Amino acid sequence: MIVENGFFSLDFLTGAFTIKAFAVLFLVFYSVFSLILYRQIQLMARSVQIQLASVLKAIAIVQIGVSIALIFIIIGAF
Fold it and tell me: Is the pLDDT of residue 40 over 60?
């Protein structure tokens, strides 16, 4: 039968796969959050003129880079 041949086998659902899937999903949400944060900083910088805006933009860009790098690290680690 199909079930006996392993067509519907759930052998890939190991602990490592579950942890990796959770980590990748969490990091995707974190990346979306960092992009939204960058957009909010841009909007804030347009409406309120402060000297700190360029520093905040730089920190937000670094945060986007770190979040995307972490996704690739987690995908490559398992």
Answer: yes
Contact 24, 1 (CB under 8 A): no
CA 72 to chain centre: 9
Report d(CA 25, CA 2) in Å as an integer: 31
Write a three-state SS string for 63-76: HHHHHHHHHHHHHH
Question: Phi first, then psi: what are they for 5, rounded to 5°?
Answer: -80, -5
Position 50 scores a pLDDT of: 85
- Going by pLDDT thresholds of 50, 70 and 90, the confidence category of residue 14 is confident
Q: What percent of the chain has pLDDT above 70?
A: 83
Q: Are 45 and 58 in contact (CB under 8 A)?
A: no
Q: What amino acid occupies position 50? A: I
CA distance 42 to 64: 14
